[in-house]
């Protein structure tokens, strides 16, 4: 096994093949993008993100922005966490 590592690892390095990991950084960037869009959505509706109480009386625009944020976050969670990033 040791001989395998001694021979194969340098060959992989010289071949240009790179090792990758799942993308927590990509996930964080995507979530930042989703939150930025949510803040813009709230601002477009004349609201301030984070100040609207989640209740049946919440404005329809706030509910629509929250639904869009949830969809965006869920989509990127399934894509970005499993996407390989170097």
Q: Care to describe what's here?
A:
The protein is mainly alpha-helical and 86 residues long. The protein has one domain. It has three helices and two strands, in the order αβααβ. It has a two-stranded antiparallel ribbon with strand order 1-2. The radius of gyration is 21 Å and the shape is elongated. The mean pLDDT is 76.
Keywords:
86 residues, mainly alpha, 3 helices, 5% strand, elongated, signal, Cysteine-rich protein
Give a quick precis of the structure.
The protein is built from 3 helices and 2 strands, in the order H-E-H-H-E. The chain is mostly helical and 86 residues long.
Which secondary structure elements does this structure contain, and how are they paired or packed?
Elements: H1 2-15, E1 21-22, H2 24-44, H3 60-80, E2 84-85
Antiparallel strand pairs: 1-2
Helix pairs in contact: 2-3
Helical segment tally? 3
Low-confidence stretches: none
* Count of domain modules: 1
Task: Classify the secondary structure makeup into a structural class.
Answer: mainly alpha
Structure summary, number of beta strands: 2
Helix content: 55-70%
Oligomer: single chain
Rounded to an integer, what's the Rg over CA atoms? 21 Å
Strand order of the largest sheet: 1-2
Task: Give the H and E element order.
Answer: HEHHE
Overall pLDDT score = 76
**Distance between the amino and carboxyl termini:** 26 Å
Estimate what percentage of residues fall within beta strands. Answer: under 5%
What sort of overall outline do the alpha carbons produce when their principal axes are compared? elongated
Signal peptide: 1-22
Organism: Mycena albidolilacea
Keywords: Signal
Protein name: Cysteine-rich protein
């Amino acid at each position: 096994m040791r001989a395998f590592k001694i021979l194969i690892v340098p060959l992989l390095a010289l071949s240009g093949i790179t090792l990758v990991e799942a993308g927590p950084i990509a996930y964080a960037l995507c979530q930042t993008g989703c939150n930025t869009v949510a803040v813009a959505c709230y601002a477009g509706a004349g609201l301030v993100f984070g100040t609207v109480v989640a209740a049946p009386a919440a404005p329809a625009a706030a509910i629509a922005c929250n639904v869009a944020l949830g969809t965006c976050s869920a989509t990127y969670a399934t894509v970005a966490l499993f996407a390989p990033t170097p």
